[in-house]
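Help needed: design a sequence for this.
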């Protein structure tokens, strides 16, 4: 089931604020899917992540900003099916990396802000915002909690 988005449901925001990894699917110039794993967070109605500006996902976003994110939850429904959140949206490269966001993501995913591969130290890193258009998957967010 897919929900047309007005606001990211609280249950989806909770998952997006956890240490669950997001798989970002972009399309390369030949139309082939490219998948990357990113640390992500949510701000307002956008999903944000940091990455190197020269990465394949950034090149792909600049050519075609339509993306899909898939985030797996640890929860299962009564039938035993794994909860997962699917986000369809339009990605935007915001420019130089947001150091505060990098620190927040490092704290959530690595347990401390001074992670050795912290992108805030890279002069070519960028922040990407995914403007969420619709959500789906299996979980309370798919029913518009």
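Sure. Designed sequence:
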């Amino acid at each position: 089931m897919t929900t047309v988005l007005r606001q990211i449901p609280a249950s989806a925001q909770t998952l997006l604020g956890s240490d669950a990894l997001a798989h970002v699917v972009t399309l390369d110039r030949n139309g082939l899917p490219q998948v990357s794993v990113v640390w992500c967070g949510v701000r307002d109605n956008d999903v944000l992540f940091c990455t190197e500006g020269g990465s394949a996902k950034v090149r792909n976003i600049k050519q075609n900003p339509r993306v899909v994110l898939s985030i797996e939850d640890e929860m299962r429904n009564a039938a035993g099916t794994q909860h997962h959140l699917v986000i369809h949206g339009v990605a935007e490269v915001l420019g130089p990396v947001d150091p505060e966001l990098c620190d927040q993501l490092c704290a959530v995913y690595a347990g401390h802000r001074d992670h050795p591969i912290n992108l805030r130290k890279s002069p070519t890193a960028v922040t990407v915002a995914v403007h969420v258009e619709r959500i789906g998957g299996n979980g309370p967010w798919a029913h518009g909690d």
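The domain at 2-143 is CATH 2.30.110.10 (Pnp Oxidase; Chain A).
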